[in-house]
Specification:
- A 7-stranded antiparallel beta sheet has the order 6-7-8-14-4-2-16, with helices on one face. A 4-stranded mixed beta sheet has the order 1-5-17-18. It has a 3-stranded antiparallel beta sheet with strand order 11-12-15, with no helix packed on it.
- The longest helix has 14 residues.
- The protein is of the alpha+beta class.
- The chain is globular, with a radius of gyration of 19 Å.
- Helix 2 runs parallel beside helix 7.
- Strand 6 and strand 7 form a beta hairpin.
- It is built from 7 helices and 18 strands.
- The protein has one domain.
- Pfam families: DUF2971.
- This is DUF2971 domain-containing protein.
- It comes from Microvirga terricola.
Amino acid sequence: MTGRDCFYTDDFMFNIMGIEDLPTTLYQYTSVESLEKILETRSLRFSRLDTMNDPEEATAADLPHAASSVFVSCWSAGEAEHIPMWSMYGRNFAGVRIRLPSNMFSGRRKPIVHEKGGALSTFDGIYSIKRKVPAMSTSGRGIIGPNKIWYSDDPAYRNRKLVSREEGMARFNPYDLGMVKGTYWSYEQEWRFKIAALPFETQFPDDQYLNNVALDLGTYPIETEALFIPLDPSALDELEVTIGGRADHTVIEAVECILAEHAPRASLARSQIPIR
């Protein structure tokens, strides 16, 4: 593995990570308030990685503030309930766990695993990522994922170069960015959707604009803080909501009202984990 190579490839996924197939359903532990926002807006929030809970994530050897260029939505694939996830993200067992099909976005296109970067799909719509001018903004419809996070403390994975240069030209290689976390996060067994502000393998002149503007995420920051990607209505018909074991009757009633109004075909269950 060299600094110019992308390590997160189809061979790496299947042969090293042991992934046999992409999950057909995904799970997210969250609050009742977040569930309501998802269903009211019929969209999923992609948060910028530099605003999330792991300050060591998505660093790059040649690009300061690289984490600000990646937007993610984080999920798990395990059907069995997970106590640490309920505790950390499910409001200490008083929130909810949601289940949705992995092809949940508008248009419900099946993700396809590519040679570089893992799975990729598109949705019916377009996102826009704004940067401080004169840096260029980004728009697109591609969503990378769902891909499983690789857990490693090795700098060769954690802090890679994103820019390759040759004969006066340069290109971005952000395939690996946002796909590695430290081993102390491995209990999450996370699957992730990702949207990148930096273009993949597009060639640019290796000039003053590239080096002093495009690559300067500090002086010319990404101004968009979150993206909201539309969910397909048919995916919400397959929604399953599990209520945490510490949720009281007011929480249960609130969830029932939310589903009745916004997702009447969704199913509702109670956590099977007994907890006081």
